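User: quick one, sequence for these C-alpha cells?
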C-alpha cells in the first residue's frame, strides 16, 4: 500500500485520501460562487460511523482555502468517508461538489490504527492464509484469531470462501467503495 504524504502547498482538488492527524489545506475555485459573493463555503466529511467533521473556507482573491488542522481528522475512524462542499448564505444553499475519500489511520495513534476496519480484515486474511498453508487436517477444528475471536469447525472450503470474501472487502475499501475485478477460485470439492 502506498504511503500518503501531506504536501506543504495547498491541494487544488479534494484528494482521494487523507491521513487522520495530518494538517493540510485545499484551495478550490468554483464557477457558481466567487469570493465576495457573500457565501460561506463548508467542506463536510462524513465517516461510515456517522462521525461528521466540517471545515469552513477562508476567502482568497480568486479562490477558497479550506485549512485542515491536525485535530480536524484526528477523531475520524479510518476507512472510506463521503465529502460534500456546499455554499450557503441567508435562505440559500448550493451543493458545489461531492465524492468519497479514504481516511488513513493516524500512524502515531495506535488506537486509531487498531480499530480500523481494514486492520480487522487484514487479520482475518492472515488467519485464513495460515490455516490454508498449515493444512493441519481437512477441517480446521479450532483457530484463534487476533482479538480473541475463535473459529471452530470450518472446512477448508469455508476457509477459502471466507478468505475470498475478506479479500474482496479489502479491495472494495482500497478502491474507495468501487467494485473491482472479481477474483475467482477454482478448488476441488
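Assistant:
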Amino acid at each position: 500500500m502506498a504511503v500518503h504524504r501531506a504536501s506543504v502547498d495547498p491541494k487544488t482538488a479534494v484528494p482521494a485520501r487523507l491521513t487522520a492527524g495530518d494538517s493540510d489545506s485545499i484551495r478550490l475555485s468554483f464557477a457558481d460562487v466567487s469570493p465576495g459573493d457573500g457565501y460561506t463555503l463548508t467542506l463536510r466529511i462524513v465517516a461510515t460511523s456517522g462521525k461528521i467533521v466540517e471545515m469552513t473556507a477562508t476567502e482568497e482573491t480568486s479562490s477558497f482555502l479550506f485549512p485542515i488542522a491536525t485535530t480536524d481528522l484526528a477523531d475520524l475512524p479510518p476507512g472510506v468517508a463521503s465529502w460534500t462542499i456546499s455554499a450557503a448564505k441567508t435562505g440559500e444553499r448550493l451543493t458545489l461538489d461531492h465524492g468519497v475519500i479514504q481516511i488513513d489511520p493516524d500512524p502515531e495513534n495506535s488506537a486509531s490504527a487498531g480499530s480500523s476496519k481494514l486492520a480487522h480484515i487484514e487479520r482475518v486474511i492472515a488467519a485464513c492464509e495460515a490455516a490454508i498453508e498449515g493444512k493441519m487436517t481437512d477441517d480446521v477444528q479450532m483457530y484463534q484469531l487476533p482479538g480473541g475471536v475463535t473459529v471452530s469447525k470450518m472446512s477448508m472450503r469455508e476457509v477459502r470462501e471466507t478468505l475470498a470474501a475478506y479479500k474482496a472487502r479489502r479491495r472494495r475499501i482500497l478502491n474507495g467503495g468501487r467494485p473491482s475485478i472479481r477474483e475467482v477460485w477454482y478448488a476441488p470439492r
